[in-house]
Amino acid sequence: MENIHITMKGTPGAVFSAHWRITQDGQTIEHIEEHGTVPTEYSFTGSAIEGTVKLLSDNQRLEVDIQKGGNRSRSSTQGTGGTLTVGVR
After folding, report:
1. What kind of architecture, by CATH, is found in domain 2-88?
2. Residue ranges per domain, the chain?
């Protein structure tokens, strides 16, 4: 199991929802954030993570950066309803 670090940035104050699925010892743990705001960070411990992030704010930008060991996933979206599916194994 490794540390998984997520950084959410973009337009300050942008609102998003996120549904994270973290794999820990063969089990899936879920973390749901219904109204998060940028900037924010999350840290989890696990062997993998998958997430769906939806931008809820209009005319704003959202960037998601996930790091686990040497693996990294970075995605961004702009505009209401923009949805990202991200993950690291």
Report:
1. Sandwich (2.60)
2. 2-88
